[in-house]
UniProtKB/TrEMBL annotation:
Presence of keyword Phosphoprotein: no
GO cellular component assignments: cytoplasm
EC number: 3.4.11.1, 3.4.11.10
Pfam families: Peptidase_M17 (PF00883), Peptidase_M17_N (PF02789)
UniProt protein name: Probable cytosol aminopeptidase
Catalyses which reaction(s): Release of an N-terminal amino acid, Xaa-|-Yaa-, in which Xaa is preferably Leu, but may be other amino acids including Pro although not Arg or Lys, and Yaa may be Pro. Amino acid amides and methyl esters are also readily hydrolyzed, but rates on arylamides are exceedingly low; Release of an N-terminal amino acid, preferentially leucine, but not glutamic or aspartic acids
Homology family: Belongs to the peptidase M17 family.
PROSITE patterns, per the entry: CYTOSOL_AP
Designated gene of the protein: pepA
Keyword Cytoplasm set for record: yes
Length: 500
């Protein structure tokens, strides 16, 4: 779908989307259309009975007499004072969600100046375009018999604004972030016979085209480094485990300590010998969503030429049961030298991250580390599908992550850490065990990870409940969300990027 910005001019054909403020207040273009239709829009609103112009409400009407258009989409904007960046994104996304398969190839979106809005016209248009782009994502490459009415018809979205030139300029960087989101959604959506450690490493290597340095370690190299924790998870699979290191550098400050992001990349999680129930196991293709988000975050930073030094490290494994698989009760030695009693082979993500985190802090000496992982089912019980869990050793980092998440609607909720939780992972025969029981399961998993951060400022994001959506939302169709890509990009942009 092509996105264009142009000066306001009502089209003579196709579909038009216009905003309606809460209280059925028609914006300028809506008033003009209503006048041409001799009150047709106002009558449609009155007849609907429920359309009030509240945020997210829609009313799709066939163009009434007096208009040569195919249809008019009325989208509720809510109150003018609440029209921030997220509201603008939701507006653009809602338009695409409603009209993507309508049969119309061209849609014009009227963006009137709205007094009282906190955004400038250019900012509103750019953010609406971002929302439209994000909502346009589809993963239908394996569908060979789609009905015509289910296929996207929308080819061009024209945003009509007096600030077209400024909006186009502002959208440039946002569009690169959307590219990164799509990359992550793609790899998370792919089945496990397509995305496995080797092929996901190849996807990461494609970032070289953006100027990212990419290094891939195989099992021999990891064994030499002493990564027994990570390697133990993948030893039951025929697929070779990989560790991928991505580096984006700011040429002006190459010697400055980088920010670092670490991702869990279990490309399929059967549970290993502690095998999962069959029902829903197909969802475990996206147990690599943390790694996908880190790859996407590096793509976003590189795509928009962020003025920062950033490291992305992802541990890629396949957790399978076989005659060579790791067993409950095995003891492995991590790169840090700490030993781990493996009580449950289905608590494997933390074993992967243990070595990835240690490697990252040991080699790169970063300002901080943030890891992302679909780590525990317990976080879904605690927070549902609305928030990711946040656990951190550093209050400033936690606060900045929370603020960045709020800004892009990737919400975080902080949970505690503490000595009592740490005691739950005490082992009788090793330095620690990989599970601490049912109580506080997400927290004890984080306590486990903290032991491999070596006092570097660190935060853990448990994204198990938010990496995949079971329903359409304004800026994301159901499926892979790419949660974390925009959050990490915003974290860097707001708090760590050189603004000069």
């Amino acid at each position: 779908m092509k996105i264009a910005f142009s000066k306001p001019s009502l089209p003579a054909s196709g579909a038009v989307a216009v905003g309606i403020l809460e209280g059925k207040v028609l914006t300028g273009t809506a008033q003009a259309l209503d006048a041409q239709a001799k009150g047709g829009l106002a009558r449609a609103i009155a007849a609907s009975g429920r359309f009030e112009g509240k945020k997210g409400q829609t009313l799709l009407i066939l163009a009434p007499a007096g208009l040569e258009l195919s249809r008019v989409l009325l989208v509720g904007l809510g109150k003018a004072k609440d029209l921030d960046a997220l509201a603008a994104q939701a507006f653009g996304g809602t338009v695409v969600g409603q009209l993507q398969t309508s049969g119309d190839a061209d849609v014009a979106v009227a963006l009137d100046v709205i007094p009282g809005s906190p955004l400038s016209p250019a900012e509103f248009a750019a953010q609406a375009a971002l929302g439209a782009r994000l909502r346009s994502y589809r993963f239908d490459k394996y569908m060979t018999k789609q009905k015509k009415e289910d296929k996207p018809s929308l080819k061009k979205l024209s945003l009509l604004t007096d600030a077209a030139a400024d909006a186009k300029a502002a959208f440039g960087a946002l569009d690169k972030v959307a590219d990164a989101v799509f990359l992550t959604r793609d790899v998370v959506s792919e089945p496990a016979n397509i995305i496995h450690p080797e092929s996901l490493a190849e996807k990461a290597e494609s970032l070289k085209d953006l100027g990212v340095e990419v290094e891939v370690l195989g099992e021999k190299q990891m064994k030499k480094l002493g990564m027994g924790s990570l390697l133990g998870v993948g030893q039951g699979s025929e697929r070779e485990s990989k560790l991928v290191i991505m580096r984006w550098s700011n040429a002006a400050k190459k010697d400055e300590a980088p920010v670092a992001f670490v991702g869990k990349g279990v490309t399929f999680d059967s549970g290993g010998i502690s095998i999962k129930p069959g029902a829903g196991m197909e969802d475990m293709k996206w147990d690599m969503a943390g790694a996908g988000a880190v790859i996407g975050a590096l793509a976003a930073l590189a795509g928009r030429k962020a003025k920062v030094n950033a490291i992305g490290v992802v541990g890629l494994v396949e957790n399978m049961p076989s005659g060579t698989a790791q067993r409950p009760g095995d003891v492995v030695t991590s790169m840090s030298g700490q030993t781990i009693e493996v009580i449950n082979t289905d608590a494997e993500g933390r074993l992967v991250l243990a070595d990835a985190l240690w490697y990252t802090q040991d080699r790169f000496k970063p300002k901080f580390m943030v890891d992302l992982a679909t780590l525990t089912g317990a976080i879904i019980i605690a927070l549902g599908n609305e928030y990711a869990g946040l656990m951190s050793s550093d209050d400033k980092l936690a606060d900045r992550l929370t603020a960045a998440g709020k800004a892009v609607d990737e919400k975080l909720w902080r949970l505690p850490l503490g000595e009592s939780y740490d005691k739950q992972i005490k082992s009788d025969i090793a330095d620690m065990k990989n599970v601490g029981g049912r109580e506080g399961g997400s927290i004890t998993a984080a306590q486990f990870l903290k032991r491999f951060t070596n006092d570097v400022a660190w935060a853990h994001l448990d994204i198990a409940g938010v990496a995949w959506s079971k329903k359409d939302v304004a800026t994301c169709p159901k499926g892979a969300t790419a949660f974390g890509v925009r959050l990490l990009d915003r974290l860097v942009a707001d708090f760590y990027e050189d603004k000069k």
